[in-house]
Design a protein that fits this description.
Number of strands: 7
CATH class of the largest domain: Mainly Beta
Helix content: 25-40%
CATH superfamily of the largest domain: FAS1 domain
CATH topology of the largest domain: FAS1 domain
Shape: elongated
Strand content: 5-15%
Order of helices and strands: HHHHHHHEHHHEEEEEE
Number of domains: 2
Distance between the termini: 177 Å
Radius of gyration: 46 Å
Length: 276
């Protein structure tokens, strides 16, 4: 029974030290044996084998050490959890500049050897289009960089990779079954038929900038033995720009000039006197 009570007291002391260590440290000094004689009178023995478990057991020296130990082993208060960050839009990351694409074999092999087009190549492989651009001659491929795919809305790329039909249609929109280099685009604007059966709007009407739908061609006319690659900075989205620009409204007709003021004709009456 005494051992049972000792363990219970020790457990209670430990619990109190963890929950209210400052209060325990400030316990009244009168409850602590101050001398070996007082400790012997309280417990019937003058010393213990270890630090005292209660305020009156063991020598005064052991009791004092028990108080120090209790404060030393008291667990520190758990730090307050960090406040949740405010939901604010992430700052726009600078657009990564893709390394210059260098022809290396056919169109598919050229894209495959560049790490900047690994997402595009993975998508082509997923819907069995890589073989087509590898063997078919005279095709133009508008190739989005990895950064272009990363700029898609969150979750859209994963959704496309899971929907092979939608993915294939998207990728076919990036292919024209003809050689289209920038000499055929500069100074013009209009739709070209894509492999998906819709239209890509190619716009070279602005000096120094050539657009394909909603994207800008950042590296034009990468020529391979079986086609042409136009590197673009965005994934092309069919219908993102109008096929034909609206004709500008004609300037309003100028108001007719006001009529000239009417001429006032003054008639002069000539009087002839007759001679008598």
């Amino acid at each position: 029974m005494p051992n049972h009570r000792l363990l219970t007291a020790a457990a209670a002391l430990s619990l109190m030290a963890g929950l209210a260590a400052p209060a325990f440290a400030q316990a009244p000094a009168t409850a602590t044996a101050q001398t070996e004689k007082q400790a012997a009178q309280a417990t019937g023995k003058a010393s213990t084998d270890g630090p005292a478990a209660t305020a009156v057991q063991g020598t005064a020296r052991a009791v004092g050490q028990a108080g120090v130990n209790a404060q030393a082993v008291a667990p520190a208060a758990a730090p307050a959890p960090p406040a949740e960050p405010a939901l604010v839009p992430a700052p726009s990351a600078p657009t990564a500049v893709a390394a210059k694409l260098v022809p290396s074999g056919d169109t598919a092999a050229t894209l495959r050897q560049s790490a900047d087009f690994s997402t595009f190549v993975k998508a082509l492989d997923a819907v069995n289009l890589a073989g087509m651009i590898q063997t078919r001659p005279g095709m133009t491929v508008f190739a989005p960089t990895n950064a272009a795919f990363a700029a898609l809305p969150a979750g859209q790329l994963n959704a496309l990779m899971a929907d092979k039909t939608a993915l294939q249609k998207l990728l076919l929109h990036h292919i024209i079954n003809a050689k289209v280099d920038t000499t055929k685009i500069k100074g013009t604007r209009g739709p070209w038929p894509s492999g998906a059966g819709d239209k890509i709007v190619l716009d070279g009407s602005t000096d120094g900038v050539i657009k394909a739908d909603n994207a800008t061609i950042t590296q034009p006319d990468v020529t391979t033995p079986n086609g042409t690659i136009q590197v673009v900075d965005n994934v092309l989205i069919a219908g993102s720009v109008p096929l034909v620009l609206a004709e500008p409204a004609p300037p309003p007709e100028a108001a007719p000039p006001p009529p000239a003021p009417a001429k006032v004709v003054t008639k002069t009456k000539t009087v002839t006197k007759k001679k008598k």
